[in-house]
Structures are given as structure tokens and as C-alpha cells.
Amino acid sequence: MRKSKLKRFAELDTFTNVLQNFNFLQPVVVNHEKQIVDPKGKWHSTIFKNNNPIILELACGKGEYTCEMALADKNSNYIGVDVKGNRMHRGAKRALEEKIENAFFLRTDINIIATFFEPGEVSEIWITFPDPHLKKGKDPKTFN
Questions:
Q1: How many Cβ atoms sit within 10 Å of the Cβ of residue 104?
Q2: What is the CATH number of the domain that holds 90?
Q3: Is 144 exposed, middle or buried (0-12, 13-18, 19+ CB in 10 A)?
Q4: What's the domain range around 8?
Q5: What confidence tens digit (pLDDT) does each residue in 61-78 have?
Q6: What is the model's pTM?
Q7: Total domain count, the chain
Q8: Which of 66, 88, 132, 142 could share a disulfide with 80, CB 3.0–4.6 Å?
Q9: Active-site residue among 13, 73, 131, 139?
Q10: For 128-142, what is each residue's pLDDT tens digit?
């Protein structure tokens, strides 16, 4: 693994606008302080501190679209979801630098996304740019 990629992983671990799940069999998310948090049912009160609609962008990649939509629509909260922390780093970092307070990021597999949200907590779910080139032979249960 390249040094720059390792650096981005380490930096992502410190971002206050990112929650990460590293185990798909026993999903638990941790924050920037390595504390286990349970955001389910608390996105409005704890994460965003408002009652604006929550819009998920699944497979957000670099998070560019998540950030742009959050900037364009301050009356909604946007959560970019992706399993690839290396990619997500760009959008999460931008959101912090530009103080985009209605953008947040969740690093997890989208197959278990319901684990982290109460029914009705999310207003919309978007899959804007799905990956048409699925890789074979990868175990989707855990990742680094």
C-alpha cells in the first residue's frame, strides 16, 4: 500500500465528520476519538443538531457530489456513504476545510446501511454513480 494512501487512512481517522465501521459481521461505528457511537435514531439530534431532512448518497466515492449538494441545499443534511476510506477522504476533508456543516460521511458497506438508521430517519437515498465493474473474489465481511 502506498504511503499516501496510508496517510489518508490515518487522517480520516481524525475527522470529526466521519463515522467508520470496520466489521460487517458485527457492525459498530467509531468516531474520530475511537469511541463506539450508535447514531441510529440520533442523526438529527446528535450529528446534525437540526431536524432537516437526511439524504444518503450511497457509494459516494470521493464525496464531491455530497459536498456540492450540501452547499447548494442548506436545508437538508447529506451523508456520503462508501466502503473506501481512501476515496471518501477527499470529500470529508473538503467538508471540514470549507465548514460544510450539513455534510457528513459514514464509512461502511451499503449492504448493512439499515443498521445505522431508524425507519423513517432518512428522507431520500441516492445512488448517483454506481460502479458497473464489480470485482470478484473479495470477502465483503471485513476490510482495512
A1: 25
A2: 3.40.50.150
A3: exposed
A4: 3-126
A5: 999 999 999 999 999 999
A6: 0.87
A7: 1
A8: 66
A9: 131
A10: 876 666 666 555 555
